[in-house]
Give the backbone structure.
Amino acid sequence: MTPEQQICKECSIQFPIEADDIEFYEKFKVPAPVRCPDCRQRRRYAWRNERVLYRRNCDLCGKSAVTIYSPNKPFKVYCPPCFWSDKWTGFDYGHDFDFSKPFFPQWQELQLQVPRIALLTKNSVNSDYTNHSNNNKNCYLSMGTFDSENIMYSTNVLKPSKDCMDCYLMSFEAGAELAYECVDSLRIYNCQYSALLKDCTDCFYSYDLRGCSNCFLCWNLRNKQYCILNEQYSKEEYEKKIVEYRLGSARAREELYVQFREVIEARALRRFAVIERSAAVSGNSIINSKSCLHAFDAHKVEDSKYAIVCGDAKNTMDSYHYGYACELIYESHALIHDYDVKFTHLSYDNSHLEYCDSCHNSENLFGCVGIKQGKYSIFNKRYEESEYATLKEKIIAHMKETGEYGEFFPPTLSPFGYNETQGQVYMPMTKEEAAAKGYKWEEVIPGTFGKETLTPESIPDDIKDVPDIIVKEALACVRCKRNYNIVQAELDFYRRTNTPIPRLCPECRYRRRLTLRLPRKLWHRQCMCDYKIHENTAKHAHHPEGQCPNEFETPYVPERKEIVYCEACYNAEIV
């Protein structure tokens, strides 16, 4: 059936609404969206401030707290212990819905009254600078980190890990130990500056290795050891050669990183998408999933579409950063253990929620903010079950008349400036572009400049020459010039792993790691494999001559330099 075409209300591009999309909307009793998938995702991004941290006093206990809300934000902000305590209740702020006014202005009044949690963190020890995280110990400036210990400057450490720094692990299956600057890897030990490693130990500056150990500047290897640039060495030759690379030197490391990027861009074969043990799916980084379209970073996801960073979820659509047993989710962000939830932000362990924000352990809420252990409530006011159901349907009918019902919260209600959020990371805009689309902007982003007490040139090149006093110095990033510090646990890690002091600040290191990951978008391409370049053309029986005819949807934009293969050609060469 030919899909219905819709014109995006925001960017005016045409986008399809498939027949199965309509079935989903009918099941959820929501109208079809009037914005394209990208514009819908931008709205959800605009509600996720992961990394821009401030200090302000808790509005309940008065203690200084690390928070994602700048001091100029017009909210009450409680530190995590106060927010989760019994010292207050969101029901104190309940009020009636006024049918003479639109929904969102009334909801915003409630949003401004109810306290917000400074950082979303639970059940953690000595991990004050973590966000969207829980069950951690001794973690620092790490976001989306769970059940882990001694993690620093890392993102999406979703499975138990230990002693890792500057990683973007993004694995729902297993964690890592003693990893530095690794991306999209699992079950690795003592690995550095690598991507797409699985079951590897002692691998450095490598890409797409499995079951390997002691490999250096390698790519596309399986079950190998003592290899450099994909050439086999004896154990003794390998160890001698590694010493010559002078891994403790910052200058040597910078040269190695340049070589690493050149190797993976010019030599490594790229599978069109990382899709494993899955059926009827499209997107990238999809594991153990089925019937999952336009999905990115998905594990154990079924019957879903436009799903980004999700695990253990089914029957979901247009949602971001959610999972751990989620079902029937639509147009939402930051959900865990939720069932039948739509148009909702940052809410855990709930069922039957609509247009809610920061609600937990609750059921049957509509238009609520900051409710904990509640049910049958609208605008933070309790009702009897039958009264709740009647009033909810009446409000939905009112919202349809005002044109408010059916999509995620408008950007004007986001608690953040767009430049504080993941929107600026994945879909950047200028201040003027953001304003034209109705997004806020934070004028004072935290950071100090020009206060360094130690210039980059003055930092000892080799980690063995770095004195203890460096933890009291202010350094300056060689890229953005922002000042940053080295904390004691960080220095201990560098010394333990023979890693030089980084010359980039944590934010620039994070942005550089992201360049090893692919866009959350798809392009149509043809496999680049040509039979003439292979020694054993029998492996490529599906195209005995000429370029492989297979086509696919891939996150590799056609202008990129990498060699991109279909699944069959990739497996013929690598597996």
Notes: The chain has a mean pLDDT of 95. The longest helix spans residues 385-402.
